[in-house]
Amino acid sequence: MMKILVIGGGGQLGSRIVRYCKQRSFDVYSTYLSRLPALDSTHVFLFDKTDPESVERLVSKIVPDAVIDTAALHNVDYCETHRAEAWRINVEGTRDVAIACRRFRAKMIFISTDYVFDGNKGNYKEEDPPNPLSHYGVTKLEGEKVVASSSEDHLIARSSVIYSWVPSQQATMSASGKPLNFAGWVVQKLSKGEPIKIVDDQYSSPTLADSLAEVLIKAVEKDLKGPYHIAGKTRLSRFGFTLKLAEHMGFDKDLIVPIKTSELRQIAQRPMDSSLDVSKAEKEIGISLPEIDEALEIFTRQAKG
Fold first, then answer.
1. Closest CA relative to residue 187, chosen from 196, 178, 174
2. Residues 6 or more apart from 81 whose CB is under 8 A from it?
3. How far apart, in whole angstroms, are the C-alpha atoms of residue 88 and residue 142?
4. Which side of the chain, N or C, has fewer Cβ within a 10 Å radius?
5. Given a cut of 60, is residue 176 above it in pLDDT?
6. pLDDT digits (tens, 9 = 90+) for 9-29
7. Residue 198 in contact with residue 264, Cβ under 8 Å?
8. Residues 6+ positions from 145 with CB-CB distance below 8 Å
9. Can you give the residue ranges of every domain in the chain?
């Protein structure tokens, strides 16, 4: 039986990974810091990845076959204005987890981001050179580097605009003020009949957390190593994604107003097209990542119970 430790089991991706591992009857352990996992509390630990002693103590206690690190500071603008905090969590904390994995011979799986790219090209492959525009992107790229240098047995999974259905009572803001996920925020607004302004010039590969969780475990089972792009298969603008979401959920699409990125005056610079090519992951894992309509059908079924 495979033993897996999920760091950040209370988050949207971590909770999906835990659920999928339980379905596979894996011996799964998870941690939380601010969000207590919604599933049963068996093998759940309060844990701060920025405390090196706690990291080593937990990994040495469990001795997992694999550690999946989903815990990070994701708020892009917050990272820009809280650089030391972002570095401590996204780089130093990640390094300590990777070192513990090496010491106790666990595979290290690090969740990275499309924001390691500058967005000048789009449809990025794993071999394309990263060039992050924001401090968030810089910290995630440095996280990749410390994982690669600290742990020989590692998998770096870059994803994009991860979303999932989260009941309203669980869709709390993070400590940095970031909604749990973009799609959940859209549903909250449109379900109340509130108009929303969405940029139509930022493109990405929206990724259903459920699908990402399943593919990550399959990649672990195949013992893949190195960087992989694991994301939704459809390249969409934020505006296009929002229209698709409204269509599937039956919301009024007239409430969605297209704007340009320049109108938002965001603190951190965003890549204009950070979409990812997922062909390597599909070929080597032997799966087909979902197109947007298939993914949103799953999301809608979950939302409507």
1. 196
2. 267
3. 11
4. C
5. no
6. 988 899 999 999 999 889 999
7. no
8. none
9. 3-162+208-233+276-290
According to the model, what pLDDT value does residue 169 have? 44
Structure tokens at 37: 């996992």
Nearest to 6, CA basis, from 99, 74, 97: 97
pLDDT in tens, 211-232: 999 999 999 999 999 999 999 9
> Encoding tokens for residue 180?
């749990």
Q: Which residue has the tokens 């690190």?
A: 69
Q: Contact, 67 vs 59, CB < 8 A?
A: yes
Residues 6+ apart with CB under 8 A from 199: 237, 238, 239, 258, 259, 260, 261, 263, 264
Quote the distance between the C-alpha of residue 164 and its chain's center: 11
0.85 exceeded by pTM: yes
Specify which residues 189 forms β-bridges with: none
